[in-house]
Amino acid sequence: MATTHPGWPDADARRYRREGYWRGMTFGALSRQWAVSWPRRTALVDSDRRWTYAELDAAADRLGVALRQWGIRGGDRVVVQLPNCAEFVLLWFALQRIGGVPVHTMPGHRKTEIGHVLRSSGAVAYVVADRHGRFDYRELAAEVLGDLADCLTSPRVVVVGDTGHHADFVAFDDLLRDSSSSAEIADEPVDSGDLALLLLSGGTTGLPKLVPRTHDDYLYNAAASADVAALDGDSVYLAVLPIGFNFTFACPGALGTLCRGGTVVLARDASPQTAFELIAREGVTITALSPPLVPHWLEEFRTSLPELGSWRVLQVGGARLPDEVARDAASVMGVTVQQVFGMAEGLLNMTRLDDPVRLVTTTQGRPISPADEVMVVDEAGRPVLDGQVGELLTRGPYTVRGYYRAEEHNRTAFTADGFYRTGDLVRLLPSGHLVVVGRCKDQINRGGEKFAAVEVEEHLAAYPGVKAAALVGVSDDLAERAVAFLVCSGPPPSARELARFLADRGLAAYKAPDRVVAVAHLPMTAVGKVDKKSLARSVSD
């Protein structure tokens, strides 16, 4: 694995082990440990299906036998594109048991992204659902495999559900049924520093890059964030966002909950109606959303007034949550809001559950680890003063030192001394909390005056009747124009009306949009961020 991605320098690795950040534990061994510690506790709930920790461990064993008999070996990559279903979790731990490497993808990914991931990972297998959200993933798999015909070895396809007319595909249930029930599995000899999984970078432009995570660093990621979220054996985590999303899986998500002996409940969709029913039925204590979902949950809560006495914490991450929405979420739904700002590459920031309201509603948290190193620098790479805007650079015990099979890109994405260039524009407060201002590439340049789109978007969202807003820079022959895409409950405001509104709120005139486009909804990327690339194309085509 050493040739596919840079690891941590030996001195740093020794320090992280010596100081207890890395425990030397693999996920295959860890799930066995859970089964011994909490055999009868409920680990996983999917609709009317339930697994105790002992049953989860046994299922991972049985599926591990099936995968090994099917030809999966240690180090083999398996692309997993599943909705929120128990099979994702069972498959994940089965692969860890035999040394396989799950590659997380999103249900919203399509031919371009999946083909790229299959090629760049060198996957030997591709696991999909039959259908989800009116989309047939079997047809997607067939189309992608057709495009991979030039590869020496095409990945085999496993379908959770009915394989349909695809004779070459293997049904997940048949894979289990055909395995030798009497076979015993011996854990693959895996080192805690080995590759455990591949995540996808969460950028909104270009094809995703593969993010290599080891057993050591990813376990620390999940366990440390579980401590900040105060998870314990009584915690019940509701997975609403896609389970393959790093935020949902390990920040602390499903993995962090299991590390503390809690229960993971899977929601098949992100609607507040589905979620509120599950929260009430299963006694959910914590869940996580992306910012665009929060207003919909607020609206449904105000309408239905559900009794959700168990629910204590709402995590929000993936993008900046407007300050006013954060305040409304806490006061209306009666929960503690915990802002989470992180990345598949590593660094994770969280507000603390006892932080003052001012910090919870206006910042995106502070690093979860005392070993996290952060710098905020200007365009020349020089540190800026606290409170000034700059690009966030970071390194630490769970922040990777390079992407998978991307040697050329790594030269620019990481500094010579191992800091990851996040591309995020932030302000660092004296308290250590970060305020996310935008992205280095999510800026609009008005005649030399540059500003972050997210700054204006928060003001646009405060205009009466505006339910959601995105500001996008669109280039023409002479300059860059700012286009405001608005979801409105009534007639949209004109650009002139918005300019007056923004001026009254104290914004410089050059930050006002040149054009307003009313849309029914804002398109999202597969990881729940506003797809600004798509919006820009819609006005430039």
Automatic annotation (TrEMBL):
<dbReference type="InterPro" id="IPR045851">
    <property type="entry name" value="AMP-bd_C_sf"/>
</dbReference>
<dbReference type="InterPro" id="IPR025110">
    <property type="entry name" value="AMP-bd_C"/>
</dbReference>
<feature type="domain" description="AMP-binding enzyme C-terminal">
    <location>
        <begin position="455"/>
        <end position="529"/>
    </location>
</feature>
<feature type="domain" description="AMP-dependent synthetase/ligase">
    <location>
        <begin position="33"/>
        <end position="404"/>
    </location>
</feature>
<dbReference type="InterPro" id="IPR050237">
    <property type="entry name" value="ATP-dep_AMP-bd_enzyme"/>
</dbReference>
<dbReference type="Pfam" id="PF13193">
    <property type="entry name" value="AMP-binding_C"/>
</dbReference>
<protein>
    <submittedName>
        <fullName>AMP-binding protein</fullName>
    </submittedName>
</protein>
<dbReference type="InterPro" id="IPR020845">
    <property type="entry name" value="AMP-binding_CS"/>
</dbReference>
<dbReference type="InterPro" id="IPR000873">
    <property type="entry name" value="AMP-dep_synth/lig_dom"/>
</dbReference>
<dbReference type="Pfam" id="PF00501">
    <property type="entry name" value="AMP-binding"/>
</dbReference>
